[in-house]
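Protein Record: Sequence and Backbone Structure Tokens
======================================================
Scope: a single protein chain, as residues and as a discrete description of its fold.
Tokens: labelled as protein backbone structure tokens, with as many entries as the chain has residues.
Position: the record begins directly beneath this header, with no further notes in between.
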Amino acid sequence: MKKYTFLPILLSVGCLAFLGGEWGLFIYPSYFPEPAYNFENNPLKAEKVALGRVLFYDPILSRDHSTSCASCHSPYNAFAHTDHDLSHGIDDQIGTRNAPPLFNLAWQKSFMWDGAINHLDMQALAPISHPKEMGASIEEVVTKLQANTTYPNLFAKAFGDSIVTGQHLLQALSQFQLTLVSANAKYDEVKAGLAAFSAQEENGYALYQRNCSSCHTEPLFSSYEMANNGLPLDTTLNDFGRGAITKQARDSMEFKIPSLRNLSYTYPYMHDGRFRKLRHVVQHYTEGIQDSEFAATDLKKPIHLTSNEKADLIAFLLTLNDKAFVFDPKHQFPRESFSIEK
């Protein structure tokens, strides 16, 4: 199987394309569940996706034109950020959480590590307005885009109206992010009957199914729910996750369950980037779970793995790397469009 022929491969094994938009913009394998995103309210359109892609890479969204969405979400890291444990923003400020990867967002019902945002169309408001990230306001950004010599034309092509609005800005960003579908790893080749796991990978797959699958559910490799995974509190950051929002003790230290796809590209791991190696993550789950009455139920029972089993598990996890997605030029900086006035 050729790694970079994403569309033909999916077509050959049976795939679905959401009909609430143009064919080819949003394609996923038949074994994926139905998306959670309601495309009827924001039908995919090539011009909207193109606008969202330009906006994603343009630092005009930040107060001082220094920080773009891509500053913390690099395509070469599956739209995560590996240079820093914690996100960096305007004025070289450091945030409080690791920048999560962006892919398979159409299947997610909540966003941010603490689930504070419940719709993809609203998610971009958080980093745009955060004082340590982009430090702007939606009104300020709309004014800058409207005064720009290029953007009114791009909005007209996308939405039929050259008047820039906050709603259209957010919808365009959503459209681009919805096209970030990662479904072309070796695991997907195996599901399609085009490849086979090695003996070590097969052993690791069995270990994953026995120990990890309840939270990191196939084929997205996450339930995208909130959970307390037994991490001790970082007393410097004092980040209590979902509990800081709900003010409920049972939600303390609950964070959104990340996907296991593309782990080779999305380090460091956990909400605060405390682990830089996969072996450190595995070690946490086998030896480092902090006893808590609110820890995930499946973590109440110890996970015992030999050193060989740990290696087998990691071997399987590496089959979830999607090189075709990470290096897909359709997702990268839009050089053909970036003669935009700053």
Q: What stands out?
A: DSSP finds 14 helices and four strands in the chain.
